[in-house]
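Request: Show me your protein:
***
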Amino acid sequence: MERLISLALIAVFALFGIVTSTTECDLPPSLWCSTPETAKRCKVLDQCKDYQTEKRDAKLVNVTLYHESLCPDCIDFITTSLWKAFTKVSDIFTITMVPYGNAMEKKEANKYKFFCQHGEAECVGNLIESCAIYVLKNERASFNYSHCIASYLNTQRRVDFPKAAKKCANEQSINYDQIDACANGQLGNQLEHQMAVRTRALNPSHNYVPWVTINGVHTEALQNQTETDLIKVVCDTYQGPKPSACQEIIHNTHSCRRLKSEL
């Protein structure tokens, strides 16, 4: 992706006869337009303005996380790689959370019964997260809420999900009663069924959690990259002007996955 961006920029600058000295600009072409200061140093400020105008309507990168509420690996991913990306480059990507993972469901009368990898408590957590997404209707707010819960669970393993969810709701001025009513009613049951349908529709099918797609695409190489440096993945994928955080090199060695076949 970076190579394609670099070639595109080189082509644009070549039309204007732009040649930069390596002593003045020691960055790859993909970063020449990352900030006004960099563009000035690389002597392409005017050309970058034209280039950024063309890219102004670039689509945000979509990061979708298929996960489970009590999965340790999912909790770690939410509180590390995904949270770092959210705090650094959230203006160029969207987050879609799908709390279902390796669960199963069975239709009983007019509702679904869920069977979760980490037991009934995880099913309760999945329902709460699905209802929070529905109630808040704001992906940034719902992810911030999910991160708060995951942080409590990560540091205090004995804290149950509803307790953590209620505590985070109080901290973030969220009406937990509304979320709780949803989770314990027919609406929550249908919302979680929708998460199940969405998870089963994955192509390729997921083999473990957390399972991440970038703009709907999943490969093993891409999964590994999202675990080690999601910021770089988002920055390399985004086709618009890069925020300053994209110049940072961030390496996170976390990589912890659990195969469905090993469960």
